[in-house]
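Note to self: user wants both folds in one dump. Writing first protein now.
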Amino acid sequence: MDKLFAFADKPEACYKKAKEKIEKLPQSVLARAFRCELVPTEAELAEREGGEYETPGKLQECIKAEKAKMEEEMNKNKLKKKM
């Protein structure tokens, strides 16, 4: 009889191990995603293709410069309309 109980406990132990692995899986996937390990980064793609990669800081500078240029043009247009 003890052999039957031991035999019956094996599937439950396998189930518990599998459940633990499944519960850890989403955490490990999220951790890999935050470390940019799931897909190639923009920099890696650019390097592979022989292109250039614009860093976030450089992109921000370009956006600020473009914004300042647009604001300047808008101000000029407002002055022209007032005259």
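First done. Writing the second protein, which came from a different request thread.
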Amino acid sequence: MDYAAMVAALDWQLELGAVDALAEAPVDRTQLPEKQPPVEDWLRQGGDSGPVSQPAQSNGQGHGQRKRPAATAPAGAGAPALVAAESAADPVADAQRAAEAAGDLTALQAALADYPHCGLRHGARNLVFADGRADARVMILGEAPGADEDRLGKPFVGRAGQLLDKMLEAVALRRDADAPEAAVYLTNVLPWRPPQNRDPSPDEIAMLKPFAARHVSLVKPDVLLLMGNIACQAMLGRKGITRLRGNWAEVHGIPTLPMFHPSYLLRNPAMKRHAWADLLALKARLGSG
């Protein structure tokens, strides 16, 4: 958690009356002032306003006055300036600059690893970058890593990935093929797993979209497959995979085919017939290329 988030969390706790982590005696919160001074006021005063008194407490032998210790100021005199700097940062603009500066896939992976604005990185085990051959004719862009992908550091290795491998093999494509003509390259819009596999938020998609777009530009596949709504939203600016699937589009001048995500097919087996039709369209496009 960064400094700005910690200050916001502390302010929220103060508003609720959570002043002491541990206290020697219980506190009657109904006798406290309705509102505690905001933590920002304390910070502006330099954190040296001294201890704050609490109302009298009963110890069973009469009433006495107890002092509440003053909060400890964060280390580093420049902490408030850091809050202002982080608040002024533009995660999307920073991502755009970092992505454009990456001259190859190794540099792009390093830029993602150094990107500080996405909170998902703090809860993930691994940065999931890519798998397969970078010179493959087909590039597959998915949504985000799941639990197995996060654990192994590779995209599409869980149940959905195993189904995808079978789908690709049906049209003579493999991620570990020796020849680029028969190979695929796999990645995701998000390189870090969202907690509990939730859908990425619009802010997360927006800040990581420049990296995904740069990834596509560096690989330059003959065909790009967009697996699921999140990939379509990031690359095409549209959602509604049921309407989009099977309809060719273009991303950076590359023929692009939206398809159902394999995880959706696991939940809705009846939709596999549409996925098979899309795979045949992919095979036809590769054969004519």
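Dump finished. Worth passing along: The CA atoms of residues 124 and 161 lie 19 Å apart.
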